[in-house]
Amino acid sequence: MSTVDLMQTPSSDPAVILRYRDRQYAADLIGAAILEFDFFSFIDQHAGISFDNLCSHFEWQTRPADVLLTLCRASGFIANESDGGIVLTSVGREFLTSDSQWFLGPYYQPIADSPVRKDFVSILRTGKPANWQAKSDGADWHESMKDETFARSFTDLMNCRGIAFGQKLAAAVSDQIAGHQHMLDVGGGSGIYSSTMVTRHPHLRATVLEQSPVDEIARKEIDRLGLSDQVHVHSADMFRDPWPTDVDVVLLSNLLHDWDVAEAQQIVNKAREALPVGGLIIIHGAIINAEKTGPLPVAEYSSLLMNITQGKCYSVSEYGDFLRPHGFELHPYRDTTGDRGFLTATKC
Ligand SMILES: C[S@@+](CC[C@H](N)C(=O)[O-])C[C@H]1O[C@@H](n2cnc3c(N)ncnc32)[C@H](O)[C@@H]1O
């Protein structure tokens, strides 16, 4: 394993490298819409249909249907009228409706039998995530994270991107974090976001709240970086157990997007309870714009998350709904690197 120098920051943006992986499932979701549901022909015949009526017709659940529609909007296949009604764009009508002479459905036929495409059909109907990467042991991603070998491999995956993401985030929140002392990094994985934050802001200490076995992985990683004095690991279940309360910043990095609305709201409510008035919540990850028209790389990544977890990439307005009515003042969304960004909010 290479030596890590968290003081050194990258000069380039890894977006292109990440996008190959982040968009891996998007073709299968579009393939499901075309091949299984002839979705675009239906929209053509029912121009202006509402989201709810669309879901009723196809018997789709809200979460996966929203991810599909966001992907179609971000791709420029559909648009929303001012009353929210869904219509096709020119490219959608000309190339994606089955009675058009330019219909490109047969181009997707080779992936008709892809397990991921088939999974999407059942996720749209049931709302339940598929097994992680079609593993046959029946465990979804959330359950798999309790397995030592899987947790190690997946934490490595998150850690490698987290070095640059964490460094950019730490730099971007400098003004907001200056007067704060103790950050709670909920579901913090290897602790890389805490490690990069305290390296950039040495006045700060951090606590990583993690479940077993990731908690032990985090302890070892933080120790390897020589940061055990500033970053501690608190072993707990974020839903069932109490959170430390002597904190004035809560970081939720790539966390809410793993969960459906009820669980995500539960996490935000626990963050509110943990923070004093004036405390800061930071939500970091891949975030859809307020209009749900993009960015395309985030809409593509959302199809992967929707397939393997109980969540999706939420939009700026959906995060506003989690925060504003629950006692937070929201600050504007900001980009960092690699199609990621963050929102902050202050507890009122
Ligand atoms: C997608 S990862 C994000 C890790 C890190 N925050 C990042 O940005 O890379 C979600 C993390 O939440 C943790 N997690 C999931 N359920 C949890 C629970 N009930 N209690 C504590 N941590 C949990 C997982 O172990 C995992 O490390």
Automatic annotation (TrEMBL):
Name the record gives this protein: 2-polyprenyl-3-methyl-5-hydroxy-6-metoxy-1, 4-benzoquinol methylase
Keyword S-adenosyl-L-methionine: yes
PANTHER family xrefs: O-METHYLTRANSFERASE CICE (PTHR43712:SF2), PUTATIVE (AFU_ORTHOLOGUE AFUA_4G14580)-RELATED (PTHR43712)
Keywords: Methyltransferase, S-adenosyl-L-methionine, Transferase
UniProt domain O-methyltransferase C-terminal: residue ranges: 135-329
Domain of life of the native organism: Bacteria
Keyword Transferase set for record: yes
GO molecular function, one term: O-methyltransferase activity
Species of origin: Aporhodopirellula rubra
GO biological process, one term: methylation
